[in-house]
Amino acid sequence: MTATFVGIPPFPEAAREAAGNAQLRHNLRRATHTIRDRRAAVVGELDDWGRLRAAGKAIKERTLRHLDVHLERLEAAVTAAGGHVHWAADAAEANAIVTRLVKATGETEVVKVKSMATQEIGLNEALAEAGISAYETDLAELIVQLGDDLPSHILVPAIHRNRAEIREIFLRTMADWGRPAPADLTDEPAALAEAARLHLRERFLRAKVGISGANFAVAETGTLVVLESEGNGRMCLTLPETLISVVGIEKLVPTWDDLEVFLQLLPRSSTGERMNPYTSTWTGVSPGDGPQEFHLVLLDNGRTDVLADSVGRQALRCIRCSACLNICPVYERAGGHAYGSVYPGPIGAILTPQLHGAGGMSAADAALPYASSLCGACYEVCPVAIDIPEVLVHLRSRVVEGPGHRAEKAAMGAAGWALRDHRRLTRLQRAASRMRDLVPRHLPGPGAAWTSTREVPEIPPEPFRDWWRRTRGAAAGGAR
């Protein structure tokens, strides 16, 4: 089961509260517009962006169709390179495996590379229950952890915080976790980064165990790949004696040639850069160089169920670039916390309900497919062409098919009955025109939710078919 943010209400209620927070809206608008403008500039430089996007989609689709073959190939390559592969069916099994591996080293502290997969399964909390402290080393993740906060963005987890808030967090809590922040700390970015660097350096030099995710796993060689912008990830991947990587089974690419496509797509779509500042790769273990023990935990956690859905499985193409969040008008106003999951924004609205969906959607999950205006901006910027609006509509149909939606199902059934026969539809239109003055502007009962933000369309005094017959007559062939 994918971890959710405990205490956060379903999206409509959480979004309503977030939209009233002027500071949050200011922080989000400034950050998302900066990132989206940078992305647009570097994408516009490439004449073949459309072909790259199509290639990324095709590679992901082909890999997902033959995922079983590629997973076995990856396992064999990792094992041949001196690594150990573990299979985790769900979050509980993955957490148990990682906890056991850390305990086997005798350590009670680990350093972590930013990882959506470990957030998804609630690994930090599981390790804490076992007496193991997990320290985030990505700057934004560090801010979230020190602030006892929750991530709100895939790429920039602390996007909802401004510089002044970050300074206060560092001054208030950094000493409780290790090296304190300087007493004269300012909110200048360079000063904040330096305080974080000095604080984290102690962790890096002391840590014996590192935990990571991976952006990609290359099946042909067993190589894992992490892209990051700070270098903190590379410290986690190279300094500890033991490295444990938790990776979703959909992160595979078959070959290095396939990886090359994504190394062009991801930086431009995520940070608006032509090339990623730090791209770290590791293959098993190398004597005398880097971690001497490597464990790969391959995580399912609902992904196989998603793969079985011919429409919904395109969500598994996601490369976690966050372009859809940065362009989404709903995310910009509601923020990431409103989605109640580690996967916010448009991609979260289709991924989270599906990962949870095997046992039926909860009320919180069922609300997410409606957290969209279906404007399509997310599809336009997605580097692997995930048709998020299509999946949203698909998931809405699944919600309606579930229990508790009898009124909506009845209404759709009545509409279908009327639209299947043109004579029946004509009679109903004429009846509606005669009673147009009796139709309320706001519907009662189940229809109240729809008309709370919309007006009932005005019914014309004469149906179109009658108007056509009266004005065109037999010369136009009449109208049925």
UniProtKB/TrEMBL annotation:
GO molecular function, one term: 4 iron, 4 sulfur cluster binding
Protein name, entry field: L-lactate dehydrogenase complex protein LldF
Stretches assigned to the 4Fe-4S ferredoxin-type domain: 315-386
Residue ranges of every copy of the Lactate utilization protein B C-terminal domain listed in the record: 403-470
Domain LUD, residue spans: 71-298
Xref: Gene3D superfamilies: Alpha-helical ferredoxin (1.10.1060.10), NagB/RpiA/CoA transferase-like (3.40.50.10420)
PANTHER family: LACTATE UTILIZATION PROTEIN B
Keywords: 4Fe-4S, Electron transport, Iron, Iron-sulfur, Metal-binding, Repeat, Transport
Entry's Gene Ontology BP terms: lactate metabolic process
Superkingdom, taxonomy of origin: Bacteria
UniProt xrefs under PROSITE patterns: 4FE4S_FER_1
